[in-house]
């Protein structure tokens, strides 16, 4: 697929490509459209996770929820949530046990699917406003870290907040806060600015997920709540069954990034 | 209680007053603190309603949820959700069957309580910004109307959107939109401006809830999603048991209005 203009594909075209087996990170696909994290759980755990998301809107901003038995939604018009993501992860009792481009064989009839906002949306807004995004410039996945900040528990779900880090030139930190705070549905304003040790991060060069990026002289590390938090919470809380996307391999939705801008 | 300085009471003092039997509308109590609508449902209906709220954030912005068996929360520190509201309503199979200042006798051990944002918060912001609020000036309850706009269904819950109406001078309509859009947790921006017939309201002088207010020459009727919507949805969807506050008789919370301002 080397010649595909990924940015120019409609979301439906991108999903069709992934449905037929293309496995690729989705950064850069379908420019202008929002991408989403996935967590699917059996009905018996769905109330607790829905409440968890309500109490933790920064890491778990819900763009949509597919009710038990539903496998499509207006966010993926004509699509199928079990096949339209490039890669899925299977968790049993909180352990990652499999990874595959099709989740149909793992599915149960009563699965509830949570679609959670993704920082790709606010990264586009940062770039459009001339704020550099180092991991994109450096051609890497964003670095992500478990923190000592606890999420707010709900029912059986609890665990650490996971954050992503972007180094921002000191004279653009205020702009980065202002711009991202206009996107509360995709993690919103930073949770922390400038002091990684205060949230339990002692070495920026060894992220827990993703890849490290260089922080240049004069840049401040800025931390945003991250959509990988639900996977960390699944690992801590050990529900019998959970299905997620593979990090970086997101659902490309039919919603435009700009729909999530406020006010 | 005629000499009580209602505006100067702390939220805890206001709740103590209502717990011991004072029955009064709460408009004007504990200035600067957010008030909330209540809907309590048995656990069996809680997932569907939580999903309903997620899908309908304008009429049902959740400030907090008390899990099955919980009767207090950080939003009512040291309080009891069954007693701390001035007046409660009991619905059985969608019918309003009782109204009382204490809901304890109606309670079940598995009730889940939803605390939903209230427009009193943005009315304070409108007044602070010099935008007149007619029903306050006229000493009346805000007029509310069922519309022909459907809410987004979730599980067993569906029904009409209820809106509140405030007449705004034509030269302040843009300000009213801008100011209230900064409070998405308390209904946010208007859902409609200027044409009541388009949303099924044929006579502004006969509201379905609350009291009518005069619309002066040069004023435009502006419509916001309303926290009475959950009660209209209960009446349409007929769950076996539901407990709400009585309209205008709200929970006074420990959260400050300003906590809900974005960005």
From TrEMBL, chains A, B:
<comment type="similarity">
    <text>Belongs to the D-glutamate cyclase family.</text>
</comment>
<protein>
    <recommendedName>
        <fullName>Putative hydro-lyase B840_04695</fullName>
        <ecNumber>4.2.1.-</ecNumber>
    </recommendedName>
</protein>
<keyword id="KW-0456">Lyase</keyword>
<dbReference type="GO" id="GO:0016829">
    <property type="term" value="F:lyase activity"/>
</dbReference>
<dbReference type="InterPro" id="IPR009906">
    <property type="entry name" value="D-Glu_cyclase"/>
</dbReference>
<dbReference type="Pfam" id="PF07286">
    <property type="entry name" value="D-Glu_cyclase"/>
</dbReference>
<dbReference type="InterPro" id="IPR038021">
    <property type="entry name" value="Putative_hydro-lyase"/>
</dbReference>
<dbReference type="InterPro" id="IPR016938">
    <property type="entry name" value="UPF0317"/>
</dbReference>
